[in-house]
Design a protein that fits this description.
This protein is of the alpha/beta class. Helix content is 47%, strand content 14%. Belongs to the eukaryotic NMN adenylyltransferase family.
Amino acid sequence: MENSEKTEVVLLACGSFNPITNMHLRLFELAKDYMNGTGKYEVIKGIISPVGDAYKKKGLISAHHRVTMAELATENSEWLEVDTWESRQQDWVETASVLRHHQEKLEASSCDHQQDSPVLERPGRKRKWAEQRQDFSQKKSLEQRKTKGVPKVKLLCGADFLESFGVPNLWKGEDITKIVGDYGLICITRAGNDAQKFIYESDVLWKHQNNIHLVNEWITNDISSTKIRRALRRGQSIRYLVPDLVQEYIEKHSLYSSESEERNVGVILAPLQRKTAEADT
């Protein structure tokens, strides 16, 4: 299949990244290999979008630090980048809205790119053959871009994220429909997770199962931000669990401690707060 016939995909991962770990980065590589391997897609970029402080999750440190660590973790990557839009919002932003923001951003960029493309005129009789070939090459390239269309944003997540759809009051039903129906999921499964069974037991997920890509993680990696923070509180090494630059940043700023883990204790998670407020109106 020619590249022009493949759907270009941008992988978007939303989450706390508190802190970002090697596993987070590994999810992108697994998803990219899988999607490219289907022959139907071409992954062109990966975006890490740390949640804002207004999410109010227990132990969530400042977005400034989480964004900086993510940027340090990806500074040598040729295709991963960190986007700060979500983290800079004063209020918590639903994942469906973050997906929409990035899809609209891609559409606007594609529109601007097409408008900026030079108008190709028919070559005159005296124009050199080399110049004619150059014009033909430019025209062909422009046609290929139009054929490909605007890249599609898809949400990258782990199986625990998928199963969170079943937590009462955590997600709006219409948001789940938008995420899996309008955009799509690439879910990396972990040992002990039965994602396929969870999809089967959900009418919404079952309806859009063709837009949910399950990727088996054959090389088990059970690193999590929670375990990283626990090790740090206990004075244990986290080397080789997070990128070296992230470890250095954590140590320099003494980011995780028993005190930081108590942040937002007793505070209701933002999605639950919003759900309660909407129910009262």
